[in-house]
Write a structure and sequence with these properties.
mainly beta, six-stranded mixed beta sheet, four-stranded antiparallel beta sheet, 7 helices
Length: about 625
């Protein structure tokens, strides 16, 4: 509908766009997980930048068209700080929710029905020094089994255990320790009979995606572990990282691991022989690194007495797929979904609940009904969306990504990126000009960029910038071998790949080689700094909460200033690792834009932005 519209010619980077920083910062909500209650209604954890990043539990409306029900009282903020990154901050069972409160980090029990008044389950230690995450409710013994991170004796080296908390307590009884001795734990999961519990553990110096172990403990009638057995990860001749254990309704244990092939695939434990079986070997990743708790990459689908069906999502060559696996017959089929990026799956009967997104669809929770043949959808509905916008109104300004593969510094080796070219129905660049390029280095560093709609990226491309979101060597989604390219080479391989991507786009005539910029958050901020210091590819960069303490950021700023280079430092009071407040998200985006516009030249940003002072420039 836009093909016949005459476009104005204007310098790349100077275009006007309705995708403003206000739109970006105020329209998108965060998703911290979701579950299904006893009535089949979805409960999700919604992060709100407009409420200073507060996270609240929201329940799906009873009837379509009605407003969803906010069930978290105003004085609570559902968020855990276990492992600092959190995740797994709440659990739903029937009409009961157990959650972690941000301010005091205590656990609370809340009835979904009635007055919703939360009741403390764990003791008050006078400060948020004991944290909890990733729990399950034991209906047999009336307790809550969860990971506990205890900072009472040491804040730099806290003790992590798996504990049992009484659900009928009044927050004064010290929890009972079920599992201890390892450095880290995750995924405590109970079998339906209440007599077996699986969990994941790992030790320093490993991260869980480097090397971990899957264990099963046998519980006594009073809830103590009498015997334990290691299922995967203890073979000294094989390095693997098992994760995501789940029990089927029939008491069979399934999990994901990357043994031998280097790809995270689905496996089943044969309890009688203590052996594991691969269910469907595929050169694809059926999970992702456990930076946070609570991931769910597969779910059991039960329909008309069948319990041999698993719905699972996997990543392959930069895209997500939804598969239906019959683990008895060994058959596997794909289900067509309008998502290119799928993150979590849960199920009730033959209904799947999936969160995902696509280049033109924001992060959403979708309900999918699977037909009897288990290979097609019989119905689909959107339950929640991260954006309050009518995205179709912005279609004329949205750039869809192209997956590119480019050569790295290592001969014969390639890496990957999503390339977004300038897109605006009202403008086109001058014929003799190529667009400036902003390269983004994702965090982690073992995270993975995806193709999901990101209005922060569209903010740039709708103004005439090209944008490359790089999955450098070390990123997940491409196998253990690809992920381990970064081993002992962080700050080298990631930097080289970001530079190689930019240089590839220059050599193929797609961007202006004199106007290359780089940005990154967290670990990506470190990559940004390293690229600017040790390479000459980029003209300017912006490091956002780049894995340094505030005093270290000030030292870096002072050193750059002393060298006579243009530099600016912005600090936000009350923010932590990751900007959560809408006003700070907006300010950061606008200041990056005007900073780059002023430094690389050839255009003036169309937005009316008051720039921060740039040392050695203003």
């Amino acid at each position: 509908m836009y093909a016949d519209k005459e476009k104005m010619s204007a310098a790349y980077g100077s275009w006007k766009s309705p995708i403003t920083a206000d739109v970006v910062s105020g329209a998108e909500k965060l998703l911290g997980g979701f579950a299904v209650d006893g009535e089949g209604r979805v409960i999700w954890l919604e992060g709100r930048p407009t409420e200073a990043g507060r996270s609240v539990l929201v329940r799906e409306a009873t009837h379509a068209g009605d407003a969803a029900e906010e069930i978290t009282p105003a004085e609570f903020n559902v968020r855990t700080l276990v492992h600092e990154y959190g995740g797994g901050a709440f659990t739903v069972s029937g009409d009961v929710v157990v959650f972690s409160n941000y301010e005091d980090q205590r656990l609370y029990k809340q009835s979904i029905k009635g007055d919703h008044v939360p009741i403390a389950l764990t003791p008050d230690y006078g400060a948020p020094v004991v944290r909890y995450a990733d729990g399950v409710i034991d209906l047999h013994l009336g307790c809550y089994i969860t990971v506990r991170e205890d900072h009472r004796e040491s804040d730099t080296n806290p003790t992590t255990t798996i504990i049992s908390v009484e659900l009928n307590g009044v927050g004064k009884t010290e929890p009972h320790v079920l599992v201890s001795g390892s450095d880290f734990y995750a995924f405590p999961r109970l079998a339906s009979d209440g007599r077996r519990m699986a969990w994941i553990e790992w030790k320093h110096p490993n991260m869980p995606w480097d090397k971990s172990e899957l264990w099963v403990g046998y519980l006594s009638a009073d809830g103590k572990i009498e015997k334990r057995v290691c299922i995967a990860g203890d073979d000294p001749n094989m390095i693997e990282s098992p994760t995501e254990p789940k029990w089927s309704s029939q008491g069979e244990l399934f999990f994901v691991t990357d043994r031998k092939s280097g790809f995270w695939n689905l496996y089943k434990w044969v309890e009688s022989t203590n052996e594991v079986q691969a269910l469907y070997p595929l050169d694809a990743e059926f999970t992702r690194p456990s930076w946070e708790f609570g991931y769910s990459s597969y779910a059991f689908v039960e329909h008309k007495g069948q319990n041999n069906i698993i719905a699972c999502t996997y990543r392959q060559k930069g895209l997500s797929y939804l598969g239906i696996l019959d683990h008895v017959l060994g058959s596997f089929s794909l289900v067509d979904l309008p998502f290119t990026d799928i993150y979590n799956i849960t199920s009730i009967g033959s209904h799947l609940y999936i969160d995902g997104a696509s280049p033109r669809h924001p992060l959403s929770i979708m309900k999918v009904s699977i037909e009897e043949n288990q290979v097609a959808m019989s119905g689909i509905s959107i339950i929640w969306s991260s954006s309050s916008l009518n995205i179709s109104e912005y279609n004329a300004y949205i750039s869809s990504p192209e997956i590119i593969e480019f050569p790295t510094k290592v001969p014969g080796q390639t890496a990957f990126a999503y390339l977004y070219l300038p897109s605006n129905s009202n403008y086109q660049g001058f014929e003799d000009e190529k667009p400036p390029l902003l390269v983004e280095s994702h965090g982690g560093p073992t995270s993975e960029s995806g193709a999901a709609l990101n209005l922060s990226i569209q903010y740039w491309t709708s103004r005439g910038w090209a944008f490359a979101d790089v999955n450098y060597g070390g990123s997940s989604g491409y196998s253990r071998q690809y992920r381990e390219r970064l081993n002992a080479s962080w700050g080298i391989v990631d930097v080289d790949d970001c530079c190689s991507c930019a240089e590839f786009l220059v050599s193929t005539g797609r961007v202006d080689g004199e106007r290359l910029c780089i940005t990154g958050k967290s670990a990506g901020g470190y990559t940004t700094l390293a690229a600017l210091v040790f390479r000459k590819t980029f003209k300017a960069g912006a490091s956002l909460f780049g894995v340094v303490l505030p005093e270290q950021a000030r030292k870096i700023y002072a050193a750059v200033k002393e060298k006579g280079l243009p530099v600016a430092l912005i600090e936000y009071e009350g923010e932590q690792h990751g900007f959560r407040k809408a006003e700070n998200i907006k300010h950061t985006l606008e200041q990056q834009m005007v900073f780059f516009a002023r430094l690389i030249g050839k255009f003036k940003a169309a937005d009316d932005i008051i720039p921060v002072h740039i040392e050695n420039f203003d």
